[in-house]
Amino acid sequence: MSSMAKAMTSVTIFILLTAPLSSSSFRDEQDPVPTPWPHQFHSILAMNYTGILEIIDLWYDWPNGRNFNIIQHQLGTILYDLEWNNGTSFFYSLDSSKECSSAQLEVGILRPNWLDGAEYLGQRHVDGFLCNVWNKVDFLLYYEDVVTKRPVHWVFYTGREAHVMTFEVGAVLEDAKWQAPVYCFDKKAETDNQGAEFSITSASVDGLLRGPFRIGM
Length: 217
Ligand SMILES: *[C@@H]1O[C@H](CO)[C@@H](O)[C@H](O)[C@H]1NC(C)=O
Ligand SMILES: *[C@@H]1O[C@H](CO)[C@@H](O)[C@H](O)[C@H]1NC(C)=O
Prior knowledge:
By secondary structure, the chain is of the alpha+beta class. The protein is 20% helix and 38% strand. It has helices at residues 3-30, 183-186, 194-204, and strands at 40-49, 52-61, 66-73, 78-84, 88-92, 100-104, 119-126, 129-136, 140-145, 151-156, 161-169. Residues 1-23 form the signal peptide.
């Protein structure tokens, strides 16, 4: 190889190696990044999946390694979805049906920085708020208020959408409410296959399906 050809090859390799890096660091400097979740908060979410409505009481509690979704179906039952950072989840009712199932996932609860690396899409108006919008691994679109940096809205790739109605930073649910009912432990044998199903889905999106993201996505 002539020295000219060698030099060209080196230049080409140099460009190949550096171009993606410099363009991504350029992008990172320019674009807003999602605000990490507060370590503890309470949020009321209005959910809509093609006209099926639910209210979710979300209690996110990172320091205690737990996350709670209390799901009210419209004029229907309340489903408690209690998640621990060790991967165990309990799904139960507190009514006379005394139903409970549990699942064991390979991932813990969502980390406060779970939105890191999301792709910035620009600004849009949603629910009457001007928001920055990100795409997280083609799994959901996340809308955050430009002014207050609070989450306003997110939409899953399935079309299921969450509207954030309240966002109380620092609110913590009392310990007693995190106790799954005794029949969750009595009927261990009845643990269904949900766990396996969720694990598979979960693994494919890096564990994003936990929290308000998993149930009936
Ligand atoms: C729920 O979403 C559907 C579209 O999937 C829409 O037609 C309907 O108006 C929404 N309902 C509410 C209460 O937002
Ligand atoms: C995870 O933690 C919860 C709450 O302490 C507990 O009930 C559950 O048994 C634990 N799961 C495992 C696999 O240790």
